[in-house]
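Typical record was shown:
=====
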Amino acid sequence: MAGGIREQSGDDLVENHEINVTPFIDVMLVLMIIFMVAAPLATVDVNVDLPASSAAPAKRPDEPIYLTLKQDLSLSLGNDVISREGLPGALERLAKGNKDARIFLRADKSVGYGDFMTVMNLLRDAGYLKIALVGLETMPQATFSETTAPAQAPSTP
């Protein structure tokens, strides 16, 4: 407690050895409220439906190297099924030793992200760092004014 009751009279005051912790508690409560309000604002929790890419397709090389990850997690280099252990040697033969060759990686859409990253790590470990991801090309979607225009019924004479 900050104050004490004097039991004796006189001009001599007794030293009080207690610490007043009320200001410390007030500061701590204010800091706790600030962190409770600021913590939820620091996280990103936005649900987003990402659009498909409608960018112009890039120019393909004369002899592209396609690596395909199938639904059953087997690999195909071009049209030939290969094992994961044989991937570096097969890439070396097909790319003719050129580690800067672009590898076009295709994967079934039911393949998990972890399995897909495992194949990308195999490519990186083999020394092939230029990897192009292959997907379906989509047509650009109609603009907002085109989709909201009322449809006209065909006229009959």
